[in-house]
Amino acid sequence: MYAFWAVFVLVAIFSTVHTVRKSNRHERLIAGWPRVQATVTGLVAGPRRRSYPTYQFRDPNGTLFAGESDVPYATPPGSLVEVAYNPLNPNQSFQVSSGSKVVLGCVLPFFAAITVGMFLFIGAFPEG
Asked: What distance in Å separates the CA atoms of residue 45 and residue 71, rounded to the nearest whole number?
Protein backbone atom coordinates (compact mmCIF):
# COMPACT_ATOMS: atom_id res chain seq x y z
CA MET A 1 0.00 0.00 0.00
CA TYR A 2 2.91 2.31 0.60
CA ALA A 3 3.85 1.82 -3.06
CA PHE A 4 0.53 3.35 -4.17
CA TRP A 5 1.08 6.24 -1.79
CA ALA A 6 4.61 6.78 -3.14
CA VAL A 7 3.37 6.71 -6.75
CA PHE A 8 0.68 9.29 -5.92
CA VAL A 9 3.24 11.54 -4.22
CA LEU A 10 5.66 11.26 -7.15
CA VAL A 11 2.95 12.02 -9.73
CA ALA A 12 1.72 14.99 -7.68
CA ILE A 13 5.24 16.39 -7.34
CA PHE A 14 6.03 15.85 -11.02
CA SER A 15 2.82 17.50 -12.22
CA THR A 16 3.27 20.45 -9.85
CA VAL A 17 6.88 21.04 -10.93
CA HIS A 18 5.88 20.75 -14.61
CA THR A 19 3.05 23.27 -14.17
CA VAL A 20 5.22 25.77 -12.29
CA ARG A 21 8.00 25.56 -14.89
CA LYS A 22 5.56 25.96 -17.78
CA SER A 23 3.95 28.97 -16.10
CA ASN A 24 7.33 30.59 -15.35
CA ARG A 25 8.53 30.06 -18.96
CA HIS A 26 5.36 31.66 -20.28
CA GLU A 27 5.66 34.64 -17.91
CA ARG A 28 9.32 35.21 -18.86
CA LEU A 29 8.39 35.06 -22.56
CA ILE A 30 5.76 37.77 -22.35
CA ALA A 31 7.40 39.90 -19.61
CA GLY A 32 8.71 42.56 -22.00
CA TRP A 33 5.91 42.43 -24.53
CA PRO A 34 3.45 45.31 -24.91
CA ARG A 35 -0.02 44.78 -23.51
CA VAL A 36 -3.24 45.94 -25.13
CA GLN A 37 -6.95 45.49 -24.65
CA ALA A 38 -8.42 43.02 -27.12
CA THR A 39 -12.07 42.50 -28.00
CA VAL A 40 -13.46 38.98 -27.74
CA THR A 41 -14.95 38.02 -31.12
CA GLY A 42 -16.21 34.53 -30.38
CA LEU A 43 -15.57 31.18 -28.77
CA VAL A 44 -13.86 28.06 -30.11
CA ALA A 45 -14.85 24.68 -28.72
CA GLY A 46 -11.90 22.83 -27.27
CA PRO A 47 -11.34 19.43 -25.70
CA ARG A 48 -13.41 18.30 -22.71
CA ARG A 49 -16.26 20.75 -23.38
CA ARG A 50 -14.12 23.83 -22.78
CA SER A 51 -14.46 27.06 -24.70
CA TYR A 52 -11.53 29.25 -25.70
CA PRO A 53 -12.15 32.90 -26.63
CA THR A 54 -10.96 34.32 -29.94
CA TYR A 55 -10.01 37.99 -29.93
CA GLN A 56 -8.86 40.92 -32.05
CA PHE A 57 -6.55 43.79 -31.16
CA ARG A 58 -4.73 46.64 -32.86
CA ASP A 59 -1.05 47.47 -32.57
CA PRO A 60 0.13 51.10 -32.19
CA ASN A 61 0.15 51.43 -36.01
CA GLY A 62 -3.53 50.51 -36.15
CA THR A 63 -3.00 47.13 -37.79
CA LEU A 64 -5.64 44.60 -36.79
CA PHE A 65 -4.49 41.21 -35.48
CA ALA A 66 -6.46 38.18 -34.32
CA GLY A 67 -5.65 35.48 -31.82
CA GLU A 68 -7.05 32.60 -29.83
CA SER A 69 -6.74 32.42 -26.08
CA ASP A 70 -5.21 29.47 -24.28
CA VAL A 71 -7.23 30.34 -21.17
CA PRO A 72 -10.37 28.17 -21.13
CA TYR A 73 -13.46 30.05 -20.06
CA ALA A 74 -16.59 31.40 -21.69
CA THR A 75 -16.05 35.11 -22.21
CA PRO A 76 -19.00 36.75 -23.95
CA PRO A 77 -18.24 38.29 -27.36
CA GLY A 78 -17.66 42.02 -27.17
CA SER A 79 -15.96 41.93 -23.76
CA LEU A 80 -12.38 43.10 -23.31
CA VAL A 81 -9.40 40.96 -22.31
CA GLU A 82 -5.78 41.94 -21.76
CA VAL A 83 -3.39 40.55 -24.35
CA ALA A 84 0.41 40.62 -24.56
CA TYR A 85 1.82 40.47 -28.10
CA ASN A 86 5.25 39.93 -29.57
CA PRO A 87 6.38 43.32 -31.01
CA LEU A 88 8.53 41.53 -33.61
CA ASN A 89 5.66 39.26 -34.66
CA PRO A 90 2.25 40.61 -33.49
CA ASN A 91 0.58 37.45 -34.79
CA GLN A 92 2.05 35.79 -31.68
CA SER A 93 -0.08 36.90 -28.74
CA PHE A 94 -1.28 35.49 -25.45
CA GLN A 95 -4.12 36.43 -23.15
CA VAL A 96 -2.71 37.68 -19.85
CA SER A 97 -4.15 35.66 -16.99
CA SER A 98 -3.15 34.82 -13.44
CA GLY A 99 -5.50 31.84 -13.39
CA SER A 100 -2.75 29.23 -13.39
CA LYS A 101 -1.28 30.61 -10.16
CA VAL A 102 -4.71 30.64 -8.51
CA VAL A 103 -5.35 27.04 -9.53
CA LEU A 104 -1.89 26.02 -8.36
CA GLY A 105 -2.49 27.75 -5.03
CA CYS A 106 -5.66 25.69 -4.58
CA VAL A 107 -4.24 22.40 -5.83
CA LEU A 108 -1.12 22.36 -3.64
CA PRO A 109 -3.00 22.27 -0.30
CA PHE A 110 -5.35 19.65 -1.78
CA PHE A 111 -2.41 17.41 -2.78
CA ALA A 112 -0.83 17.91 0.64
CA ALA A 113 -4.05 16.98 2.46
CA ILE A 114 -4.62 13.90 0.31
CA THR A 115 -1.00 12.82 0.79
CA VAL A 116 -1.16 13.13 4.58
CA GLY A 117 -4.60 11.49 4.67
CA MET A 118 -3.43 8.55 2.58
CA PHE A 119 -0.35 8.11 4.75
CA LEU A 120 -2.43 8.08 7.95
CA PHE A 121 -5.01 5.76 6.40
CA ILE A 122 -2.36 3.29 5.26
CA GLY A 123 -0.69 3.42 8.68
CA ALA A 124 -3.95 2.37 10.36
CA PHE A 125 -3.80 -1.07 8.73
CA PRO A 126 -1.39 -3.70 9.99
CA GLU A 127 1.07 -5.04 7.46
CA GLY A 128 0.99 -8.62 6.49
From this structure: 12
Phi then psi dihedrals of residue 42, to 5 deg: 175, -170
* Strands (E) located in the chain: 35-45, 51-58, 64-68, 80-85, 93-95
Distance CA(56)–CA(93), nearest Å, equals 10
Cα distance between residue 116 and residue 118, in whole Å = 5
Residues 6+ apart with CB under 8 A from 62: none
Report the C-alpha gap between 6 and 11 in whole angstroms. Answer: 9
Give Dmax (Cα) for the chain: 74
76 touches 40 (CB < 8 A) = yes
Taking the C-alpha atoms of residue 95 and residue 68, their distance in angstroms, rounded to an integer, is: 8
- pLDDT tens-place values along the chain, 128 residues long: 677 778 888 888 888 888 788 878 888 888 899 999 999 999 888 777 778 889 999 999 999 999 998 777 767 899 999 999 999 999 999 888 765 566 667 777 887 888 788 777 777 776 65
